[in-house]
């Protein structure tokens, strides 16, 4: 009697998306191998951005990918784009994508702590990594993006990193000590709320659409919204002239996709989209390094911005807070403990010492 070895079950489309970190040149070229469009008709998605339309990322990230997708599919796959707050504000974007009100959106893992135990690692643990490529390696090669998506998929949402970038604080007035820092009211989100609180400040969340007014009227004394590019494009340097270094964190913005909508796409459209997501992640991350450099230069030369370093006693408080947050986040789940082990090993390889 002969026995045939059963063929392994093919991976699910969601698993393939989750594992797309290994997509390389072959995958990016794959759409050309499919030939003409497989399915007739057109697909149009509603896509809610976390960014206001004035933000450089609205066009540079979202608008660019949408136009490339439409071009590569000969107009068969179009996105209707909504600026911050038009369908939902930042923390609500995950929910409207989960329910299918919008088929996709841009967001931040910092808004997803209630649906994923590794959200802080996907966003970026404050005070740990120190460069764009380091955050990219953690997300893509060390598997944090895939771990995040595995948890969001339980809520019907596929998660993908959009780009890596620095998160930096801007202030209305200079500070010279931890005592002065402790008097500040700051806009923050995610793990940075705890990070800045542990360093002595009084942080709270303010929606992007209300941030300029909150700064100009004194509701808060400073904020983080990305770094120099965010401050410049939202005109925040008009009211906050002090740009603080080093970065609070190196973070990742996010794409969120309704899993059912993604699975319902014709195969060729899905492949075009997933290939573009990988392509644009690396292209946009690299591009953003230049944009940050140019924005800081313009701020200093033309807008009266002063770049300052946090006082040493504030940096010492931040280092302690970072270690505490990392240890706390590691306790959230087995997946979080794995994420923490990978991050700690990576920092050890880099020689990063938080004091």
Automatic annotation (TrEMBL):
Protein name per the record: TRAP-type mannitol/chloroaromatic compound transport system, substrate-binding protein
Chief location category: periplasm
Cited Pfam families: DctP
Keywords recorded for this protein, A-Z: Periplasm, Signal
GO CC field: periplasmic space
GO biological process, one term: transmembrane transport
The species this protein was found in: Albimonas pacifica
Subcellular localization(s) per the UniProt record: Periplasm
């Amino acid at each position: 009697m002969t026995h045939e070895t059963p063929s392994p079950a093919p991976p699910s489309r969601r698993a393939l998306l989750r594992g797309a970190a290994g997509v390389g040149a072959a995958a990016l070229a794959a759409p050309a191998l499919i030939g003409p469009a497989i399915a007739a008709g057109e697909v149009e998605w509603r896509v809610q951005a976390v960014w206001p339309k004035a933000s450089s990322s609205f066009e540079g990230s979202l608008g660019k990918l949408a136009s490339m997708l439409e071009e590569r599919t000969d107009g068969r796959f179009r996105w209707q784009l909504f600026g911050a707050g038009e369908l939902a504000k930042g923390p609500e974007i995950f929910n409207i994508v989960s329910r299918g009100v919008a088929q996709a959106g841009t967001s931040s893992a910092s808004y997803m702590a209630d649906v994923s135990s590794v959200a802080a690692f996907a966003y970026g643990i404050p005070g740990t990594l120190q460069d764009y490529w380091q955050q990219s390696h953690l997300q893509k090669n060390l598997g944090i993006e895939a771990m995040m998506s595995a948890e969001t998929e339980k809520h019907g949402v596929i998660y993908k990193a959009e780009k890596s970038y620095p998160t930096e604080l801007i202030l209305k007035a200079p500070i010279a000590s931890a005592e002065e820092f402790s008097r500040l009211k700051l806009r923050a989100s995610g793990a940075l709320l705890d990070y800045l609180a542990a360093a002595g400040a009084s942080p709270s969340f303010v929606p992007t659409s209300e941030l300029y007014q909150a700064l100009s009227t004194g509701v808060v004394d400073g904020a983080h919204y990305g770094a120099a590019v965010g401050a410049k494009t939202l005109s925040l340097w008009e009211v906050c002239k002090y740009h603080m270094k080093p970065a609070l964190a190196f973070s990742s913005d996010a794409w969120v996709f309704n899993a059912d909508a993604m699975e319902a796409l014709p195969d060729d459209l899905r492949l075009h989209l997933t290939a573009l997501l990988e392509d644009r992640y690396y292209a946009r991350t690299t591009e953003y390094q230049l944009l940050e450099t140019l924005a800081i230069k313009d701020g200093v030369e033309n807008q009266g911005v002063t770049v300052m370093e946090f006082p040493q006693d504030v940096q010492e408080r931040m280092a302690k807070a970072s270690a505490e947050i990392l240890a706390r986040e590691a306790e959230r789940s087995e997946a979080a403990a794995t994420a923490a082990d990978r991050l700690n090993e990576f920092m050890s390889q880099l020689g990063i010492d938080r004091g």
